[in-house]
């Protein structure tokens, strides 16, 4: 119940934002893994857009559509090779109206 | 797409990139600025407070047409526990001056204005263009950039990396290390819209006067962090940030912290009835002096957040960004005027000039503060805020307890929480780091 409430709140927040999603070309990918590291697992809570979620096999998946391109996941998980991180193509991604 | 050779390519159109591009273009250099957003500012996030002095050094008459929200007349520094805040407020009519010192701004609007000035100065600004790679010659000198546009190789004598805190290009090219989780904070922010007169009533403001609140305490849940509330003309920027390493270790969610801050009894009435129109997130460099990377090399310089130039103690970032951008540009102009090559040796001038400025001097002053606050965050962000609140309440509440007993109880609470030795050592370490 608590999880559901939190989730809907983040989605409500992201709903206010403007995005131009580059369909089929996600700028962040999670590499296939058996068990996520502590940092990758933490991203399911720490990512401010809640892009990371745990699937029922215990692996972490990403849906980058709501990404605000802050770079937190890059700082936590790029060095270990667990994620592949790039900026979206020019013009795509989050478009802050106020910033 | 562009066949010409430029004097300089600036990567990024934030504060440091715009300062650099404007300064070089207005001195007649042929400048190309590349920005990945749809418009300058569309990827940029800041609180935001803008410091007039540093912009005046670049655009002296900026007040004529820059989109400024409110000039600050009041600053509140709060230490919060779950139900209270203890504060130091400074408000002065002296801040109502002909040329005010600090303004709140909305970055997407401000950056569009700044970028217009850059174009008017003669630079070519290309948006919706992500720089994907630095181009280097056989001797490893940076000679240009590749972008995600067709035929995207562009050449220049020097590349100014104003690419922001993540610093993708520079870190991938091995020019500097990626920021560490313990040297960057993740901040989230919401834009709360309210009628102008409501903001003025709630904060006791008139006209363009503004008020800001910055708060540490239990709101960051023992993590090293800071909450902030800035008044704009018709909106309030409200946010909170904590170290990425703390977020990861505690497995906390930034939006949960933000919602808790919003419902804190000291904050809730200030934003009551507001309409939220945007939610944003951004990283902030927190490593201070010791996190400053190599700032220049053959054919490149790095400025602003990408160079981790942020004064976390004074919460100053954009002025360090603007100043480093301007100084890098001035160094490049100087080398260019001598018809000298943009070698590492010649571009060392940038660092020499920056070292003499407030940017490096301020960061050096607080070089030990990040380590102090980040390693004992529970004491500074939970234990002391609770003790302060208890002490204040004990002092204020009148309940027939003799004052001498109240004082003894407060002293005992401090000693119980931190021990005599702990209190002394915290005080000494803070004093040494502050020095």
Automatic annotation (TrEMBL), chain A:
Keywords: Electron transport, Iron, Iron-sulfur, Metal-binding, Nitrogen fixation, Transport. InterPro entries: 4Fe4S_Fe-S-bd (IPR017896), 4Fe4S_Fe_S_CS (IPR017900), ETF-QO/FixX_C (IPR007859), Fd_FixX (IPR012206). Residues 58-88 form the 4Fe-4S ferredoxin-type domain. It comes from the Bacteria. PROSITE patterns: 4FE4S_FER_1, 4FE4S_FER_2. Pfam families: Fer4_ETF_QO (PF05187). To ferredoxins from P.putida and C.tartarivorum, ferredoxin I from A.vinelandii, ferredoxin II from D.desulfuricans. Could be a 3Fe-4S cluster-containing protein. This is Ferredoxin-like protein. It comes from Mesorhizobium opportunistum.
